Each structure stands twice: as C-alpha cells, then as structure tokens.
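Assemble and predict.
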Amino acid sequence: MLHEHQNLVDEQDTPAEAARRSRYGLWLFALYLLLYAGFMGLTAFAPGVVAQTPFAGVNIAVLYGLVLIGMALLLALVYAWLCRPRQV
Amino acid sequence: MSLTIPIFLLFVLFTLGLSFYLGNRAKSAAGYFAAGGQIHWFVNGIAFAGDYLSAASFLGICGLIAFYGYDGFLYSIGYLAGWVVALFVIAEPLKRMGKYTFADALDSRFQSRGIKLSVAISTLVVSVFYLIPQMVGAGTLIKPLLGYPHYVGVIMVGTVVILIVATAGMVSTTYVQFMKGSLLVLFSTILVGMILFRGLEVKKPRGEAGESVYNLFKIKLPQKFDIHSEKPIETLEEWFEQGMKHDILPAEGAWKGKPYLRTKDRETGKVDIYRVVKDGSVTKAWELANTQTAIELKSGEKKVELTHRPLTLKHEFLPVGHLLTLGSGATRTGPVGPLKYLEELGKGTILVWGSELIVDGNTKYTIYYPTVKSGADMLLPGNYFKVRTGKFFDKIDFLSLMLALFCGTASLPHILIRYYTVKDQAAARLSTIVGIASIGFFYILTLYIGLGAMISGALDVTNSNMAAPLLAKSFSEWLFACISAIAFTTVLGTVSGLIVAASGAIVHDLLSGVCAIQMTDHIKIRVAKMASVIVGIIAIVLGILFEKMNVAVLVGWAFSIAASANLPALIMLLFWKGTTKHGITAAVTFGMLTSLTWVLLSADAYKNVYGLNPANALVPFSQPGIITIPLSFAVLVVVSLMTKSRSVPQSMHQN
C-alpha cells in the first residue's frame, strides 16, 4: 500500500517528548492569540486608540501590525529552540 | 518588440522546462503526491512561502492597500497569524498521524467512508475557491502585458498548469515554488528599495486630463455668471444651464438618494455624472467631483465615459493614485527610510478612488469617483471594512474575516500537503519557520508596495489587482516585465499545487477511499492526471466569471470555507477524545455548506459577481467565519455526543 513508507518520525519521538512539544506549542499559541485578539479588539472597538502616533510618527495600527508579524517569527524561533533535540 | 515579452516568456519557459525535467523523476505514486517525503527542509520552507504567497498576497493585498490603505495590510497580518496556528497547534500531531492528504489524517482514526467523502468534497471546494483568484490574477496580468483580454490570460494559465501537473507532480511543484518564492521576495525587496529611494512626490494630475477628469470643484451660489450679467445665478440648474447648456436630470429610480448629479447636454445629449461630495441644497455651497464611469447596456455593449471628456481623450479610463500635498509643503522628500516614509505619508493628502454600482433599468453604471483623503486616514483601518462607522454588522464583518484568516491557513489542503514532503517532524518544524520568516518579511514589503502604488499615479481605477505590476512599470519596463513574470509564475505554481491537492482528493479519497476502486500506482497517477485536467477546466471557467473581484478578497472566502469546514474537525480530533466519525462528517459538511452558501449570498458577490444591487444581499455581512466556525464546532460536539456509544475510536497515536 501507499501508506507504509510514510510514518517516518523523529528519533526522540516518544509520547512524553510529543506531549512536551505539544504543551509548548499550546502555550505559545495562547500568547499569540492574546496579542491577536487585542489587535482585533482595538481595531474594531477603539479606532481612536490605534490612530495615536507614539513612535517615529507612525500610528499604533501600523506598529501593532508590524509587531504581530515580528512576534510570529520570534515565537516560532522560541518554539524551535524549546523543541531542539536533547540527549536522553 | 519591447523587452517585456521576451523576459516574460523566458521565465515561463524556464519554469515549464524545470517542471518537465523534474517530472521524469517522479515515477511512483508517493513521488507524485508527496515528493517521496525527501525534500530538504529549507527548500520546503521557501516552497511554503512560494505556495502561500499566491496571486492573492502579491496582487491582491498590494491592490487593496493601494486603494483602501491600511485595510489591505489586515490581510497580511491575518494570513501570517494563521501560520502560528499551523505551527503550534496542528503541524506535529498531524504529521504524526498523516498519510498524504488531509482526509487521510482525519480518517486515520476512524476508517470511515463518510469522513473520506465529506473531507474530499471540502478539499475540492476549497481548492476551487482558491483556484479562482489565481486564475483571475493570471487574466489580470496578461491584459497589460501582452494586450490580450482577460479570458485569454485565464485560458493560457489554465493550459500551462494542466501541462505542468499532467507531466509532473509534487516534486516539480515544490521546486517551482521554491524558485518562485525566492524570486518573489528578492524582486519585491528591490521594488521597495526603489520606492524608498524615490521617496514621496507630489503628483498633481496635469494637462487636459488633470483639468477635466480629476477635477474636484466647488460651486458657491448665488454668483454672477460674468461681469455683464445683471441677475446672479441662484440655483444649480441655472448654473449648469448658463455655463454649459446642460440640464440637470431628475434623481429618479436607482439614482434616488444616491450622491450623484447627472446633467444632459442639450445639443449632443451626452450625460455627465458628477459625484456630490458635499450637498449644497441648504448651504448653497456644493462640492462636486468628475467621475469615470463604465456603462453596460442591456445589449451587452460596454462604454467608458468620463465627465467632461475632452475630445482629445479616448473612451478609456485614466490612471489614478496621486499624492496631492506633503506635510512640509514641499513637492518631494527625496530618499527616505522605512519609518520616515510612513510618517511623511501620514502628513500628506491623497486622491483616492472609490466605486459604486448603480443599476438603472437595463443599464449598469459602475461609477469611479475621487475622494481627497488624508494620509493619516489611509494609514488607519476603516476604509474597506467600515470599522469606524460604529455599525454593528460592519465591525462583525471585520472580526469575522480576521478570525477566518487566523483559522484558515492550517485548514488549507495545499498547505497541509507540504507537511508530508519532508522527512520528519523536526524538518516540518524548520520548514515552517523558514516559511514564516520569508512570508512575514514579504508581508512587510507588501505594505510599502501598496502604499507606493497608492501615490504612483499609475493605478488602473477599475482593477485593484494590477497595482503592484503597474507600480513597477512606473519605475521601468524591465522591472515590470520581471515582476509580471514572477507574478505569473506565482499563479502557475500555486495553481499546480492546488490541482495536485485536488486531484489527490479525487483519486486517493473519493475513488480508492469512498468507492473502494482498486488501482495500481500506475493507474492512480493516470487517473490523478485526468482529474487535474478536469479541475483545471473548471478553474478556467470560474476565473473568467469572477474577473472583477479583488483576489485577496476571494482568497479570504477560500479561507473562510476552509476554516469553517476543516478546522473544527482537525482541532477536535487532535484535542477531544469524545470526537466521533459522525461528528466529523457532520461538522465538515455543515461548515462547508453554510460558509459556501453565505459567501455566495453576500453583498460582495452581489456587486462584483452577479452585477446585482449589493443592498439586496441576503446575508447581513460578507464574511461568514464568525458564525460558521463556531457553529461547525457546535455541530461536531452535538453530533459526537449523540453518536458516542456507536463508535469505538482506535488509539490516536498509531505508531
């Protein structure tokens, strides 16, 4: 059958390791979700706030957007670091 | 012959050649559908970006930003945020369970034909909805590049892609996506460099066109017609009568209550349409703007009419997008840094164009009208999604889109399939990070490309999708050729990836899964290729029908459908033990049908697809996600609880 060669997994892929990675993933996800929800809330319900220009003459809407893009990468790197292969 | 066409052809032929070459290496079914699981993680990561940065990102987002400012950037933010869900929540468990397609992953726990059927159909629907904007984008590109009408472009890209997919498979699409992803980011960076180097430049429309078509003017009554007149002009009727021998037409039928003023020339009978920027019925001070209007008669005859069109101008639309003033009063800034660019733009004023469809009897008028906006306004949300008006449904529409974008990425069939092309979870993780880095960087570039196009004076008022290529053209022909060629290969690559996913769904899930037809590997590939041709033809037809839609908005719909149909099933399968096969089947079917019906009944579809009055749309806002995603979750839970005793789940971790 087609499926048989596909179940290639990490060397350290024990259930405990998988559970640990899954936990990291969910915590980081929760953190990003908060940031994203904050952005949605501010944009929809506080247009006055996002219009302020606290830094370099650029408004909060643009800055928050750039932060969301930057944070996605930062959290992804943190995740990769947390999930790095470890000696058992 | 200009430089454009050779450069363009070179790109496309190179892509095709590579695809043919690599195609010879994919002999087995595993090679065809999942590149044999042996693609290097870095190549796969850039290919992620290549897959993801489709026509929607490049053409659509830049176009939305060019026309609506910040609101286009919301798509960038949402598209990228979706990767967080994919990486942190879905990627690893899925890879652990996975086979080839998304349906396999869902099915690996239950072995249910019902799941296979519903997921295969949802994969097909999402793929087709994602294919439409790619096709629309292709048609859009061909028009200014080679001079063919929209439908020729759609047919061309369809044919080329069918060739690619029918000859190759996942290996070649991966390398095509890798190449295209790298080139797209590289050339976009060059383009942004040129935008920043050029800086901001006040560009008032000049000459005859500037006098007439871009004219916004004020009328203050009463006023004297000239020094000889004894009686001052008291009414707007008199003003038009004396000045131009025009009669004001009554605002009847579809024009009633609309901010337009129509006048008719007594001699020629030509009708001019003005946008009423400020109504002066009470104050006696009017502000009117000339418009550009596409008129479609019942016979299908189409005409372009400009208010006060001078005889020297043809019946053609004039390019738009002008920076009227800079904060400092200067006419140009010279080279600026990225943050300074935003700051200076925020202090300027910009002439932006909106559009409105008016159906008057048997005649359709699409009116394009100018508005003066402050740069600060354009850098804030609210010009596309009316989040500032305070209307409840407008805010919901916005929140709904952001939710769908957030949830949609992980639910897209052609993104998920890429998790199977690398060898293990660590490689899938690294791929995703490379993907996020390049996609995130690209999305920051889209902000500058969009804003640069907004003030380039080169925009096509009828088609937001052309903003980025036209901006490139305002710099140089060769850049235009390169950018268009990359955008075209982008379309080619994305479409082939999607068609592989769709044909995988047909062959693997529908035929061998649901119908239990036994096939050898060889036959499977052959049937998959036949399926590709059929899906390709469907996409061509739909691509022609949806010409007018902004491609990022169309992709937003695909995200909504994907998120509603697939995400609840995926999440609950991974994180809730009580999930049953009936629950999954019901949730996928329900989520797909409700979100699909919703978008087809929305105001956006009414205006841009059917050409009907958007006010008659049956649903209160266009984006279904905020309703259909939670409902799909609810359906899954309820059906699972009802059917709990009937199904005995096997262990989730098969290995």
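DSSP finds three helices and no strands in chain A.
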